[in-house]
Write a structure and sequence with these properties.
Elements: E1 3-7, E2 10-12, E3 18-25, E4 33-39, E5 46-51, E6 58-60, E7 68-73, E8 78-83, E9 92-99, E10 114-115, E11 119-123
Parallel strand pairs: 2-11
Antiparallel strand pairs: 1-3, 3-8, 4-5, 4-9, 5-6, 7-8, 9-10, 9-11
Length: 125
């Protein structure tokens, strides 16, 4: 069974950090681009980051650039989203998704072929 599972979310104070994990099972994640998206209450899904297949170049959305980074651990078949200096507006459900055939470009959700179920991140005092 193919699975893509996000974990690492939770409640943190403003200025804190979290590391989200996107763990794949049933297939090898390494050959594919992996994006992170988020969706806050009442808002559309927003692209956050992407790490490409091949040489692994990354794209980071302007809204989180300088605070968030993405990386992969091939041995663990996992992609990470490191989130630092968190703000209340970062509160959302965070999803990872796989693009079977493309390198990272923009943050169009329609480009991604398979999605996880999401993990909740809440930034609050």
């Amino acid at each position: 069974q193919v699975q893509l599972v996000e974990s690492g979310g939770g409640l943190v104070q403003p200025g804190g950090s979290l590391r989200l994990s996107c763990a794949a099972s049933g297939f090898t994640l390494y050959p594919y681009s992996v994006g992170w998206f988020r969706q806050a209450p009442g808002k559309e899904r927003e692209g956050v980051s992407c790490i490409s297949r091949g040489d692994g170049d990354t794209n980071i959305a302007d809204s989180v650039k300088g605070r968030f980074t993405t990386s992969r651990d091939t041995a663990k078949n996992t992609v990470y989203l490191q989130m630092n200096s968190l703000k209340a507006e970062d509160t959302a459900i965070y999803y990872c998704a796989v693009d079977w055939t493309h390198y990272c470009s923009g943050f169009a959700a329609s480009a991604y072929d398979y999605w996880g179920q999401g993990t909740q991140v809440t930034v609050s005092s």
